[in-house]
TrEMBL record:
One of its GO terms (cellular component) is cytoplasm. It catalyses: (1S,2R)-1-C-(indol-3-yl)glycerol 3-phosphate + L-serine = D-glyceraldehyde 3-phosphate + L-tryptophan + H2O. Keywords: Amino-acid biosynthesis, Aromatic amino acid biosynthesis, Lyase, Pyridoxal phosphate, Tryptophan biosynthesis. Its cofactor is pyridoxal 5'-phosphate. Tetramer of two alpha and two beta chains. This is Tryptophan synthase beta chain. PROSITE patterns: TRP_SYNTHASE_BETA. The gene is trpB.
Length: 453
């Protein structure tokens, strides 16, 4: 087995349950709070936006939650996903480290996002919902929900961050191929969108703005619910199928990770791989976890842990998380899926409890790492995933300098086949690193809501 490159699980070994880290954290995750009353919110308060099936998961303290068979049936279209040993990258770096990656780009939408999209579409269909509204940054989530909506017979309306809408026309085309409607955000369709356009007709948009629009649409219709592709507890839960598979595959490779790495925007792909291994860390295993984000949107590395709105229009409940402030407008970098002002409360709690580390990189150094990875391993990474790859290479070179043969596991959360304009800009020398605007951060944080909880 010493020369094996790919580790495959048979379909019958695909996990039958999602893992809930909330059951094992040192303390509780702070509940969402009503922005009007300042009181904790329960499932019934969120029922206008989400089906009860996911709301029960959102607040659950159960360690294991069964994956419904109709969801597992759809998962079988691409799961279990492969675990790959990056032998050629190891050789190129001259490192004694072993590098493994879980490759989620094999899904129909080309990323990890269908793991939760399929689950959310199923629970909405079970409740008799006929339409879903959502937002998307880079388009991975929008195309995933479009795919899942088609599977379960749901109409899907996607508000895509305008800068990404313009940068990634083929993501839009993929959504439309699956039958969804894709609208650039901010749009004139909603009060939230119109308010932004009135202030800035040329707004690039942000995930916070797109969330406001999608939430407004869902709240105004009885037949429509809102679906979120990251951040919330139930989304992180659904993604743990990644880590549970990886554990079985690492056993096949006769290895255990010393370091687990993932990029962080809202937190879902990092959580999907890392949370099952955090369970082992909490049992005493020595594992490092590194969440990697853009220097231009440094939620974990520069933001405070505070209650904040999940959207720019301040329509959502308040969540306790690391945040740059709901009014923060990230620069229009190519890693659209990482341009979010907040971080999943569960991931935020993991950082606050000292279970993980966080670091940030500029986009050009991430693309340099992505190109080297592509030339060694053959897979062109999504811009988001390139942040994880940069951290992997840095850790592998540290191992080389220190003479340590550590094992590194990371999540290659998606391919970059719809992101080639970004690579074109990189090769043409048009890609720049935008200096972080600390004054804009302080202005945004000054508007954080005051919560007594």
């Amino acid at each position: 087995m010493s020369d094996t490159t790919k580790y495959f699980l048979t379909e019958d070994r695909m996990p039958k349950a999602w893992y809930n880290l909330a059951a094992d954290l040192p303390g509780p995750v702070a509940p969402p709070v009503h922005p009007g009353t300042g009181q904790p919110m329960g499932p019934e308060d969120l029922a206008p936006l989400f089906p009860m099936g996911v709301l029960e998961q959102e607040v659950s303290q159960e360690r294991w939650i069964d994956i419904p068979e109709p969801v597992r049936e759809v998962y079988r279209l691409w799961r279990p996903s492969p675990l790959i040993r990056a032998r050629r990258l190891e050789k190129a770096l001259g490192t004694p480290a072993k590098i493994f990656f879980k490759y989620e780009g094999v899904s129909p939408a080309g990323s990890h996002k269908p793991n939760t999209a399929v689950a959310q579409a199923f629970y909405n269909q079970q409740e008799g919902i006929t339409k879903l509204s959502t937002e998307t940054g880079a388009g991975q989530w929008g195309s995933s929900l479009a795919f899942a909506g088609d599977i379960f017979g749901l109409e899907v309306e996607v508000y895509m961050v305008r800068i990404s809408y313009n940068q990634k026309p083929y993501r839009r085309a993929l959504m439309e191929t699956y039958g969804a409607t894709c609208i650039p955000s901010p749009s004139p369709n909603t009060a939230a969108g119109r308010a932004i356009l009135e202030k800035d007709p040329d707004s690039n948009g942000s995930l916070g703005i797109a969330i406001s629009e999608a939430v407004e649409i869902a709240a105004s219709r009885d037949d429509t619910k809102y679906a979120l592709g990251s951040v919330l507890n139930h989304v992180c839960l659904h993604q743990t199928v990644i880590g549970e598979e990886a554990m079985l595959q690492m056993e096949m490779a006769d290895s255990e990770p010393d370091i687990v790495i993932g990029c962080c925007g809202g937190g879902s792909n990092f959580a999907g791989l890392a949370f099952p291994y955090m369970r082992e860390k909490l049992k005493g295993k020595a594992i490092r976890f590194i969440g990697v984000e853009p220097t231009s949107c440094p939620t974990l590395t520069k933001g405070p842990m505070a209650y904040d709105f999940g959207d720019t229009g301040k329509l959502t409940p308040l969540m306790k998380m690391y945040t740059l402030g709901s009014g923060f407008m990230p620069p229009g970098t190519h890693a659209g899926g990482l341009r979010y002002h907040g971080m999943a409360p569960m991931v935020s709690s993991a950082l606050e409890y000292g279970l993980m580390e966080a670091r940030s990189y500029q986009q050009t150094e991430c693309f340099t790492a992505a190109v080297q990875f592509a030339r060694n391993e053959g897979i062109v990474p999504a811009p988001e995933s390139s942040h994880a790859i940069k951290a992997v290479m840095d850790e592998a070179l540290r191992c080389k300098a220190e003479g340590k043969a550590e094992t590194i596991l990371f999540n290659l959360s998606g391919h970059g086949h719809f992101d080639m304009q970004a690579y074109t800009d990189y090769f043409a020398g048009k890609m720049t690193d935008v200096p972080f605007d600390d004054a804009a951060l302080q202005a945004s944080l000054a508007d954080l809501p005051k919560v007594a909880v």
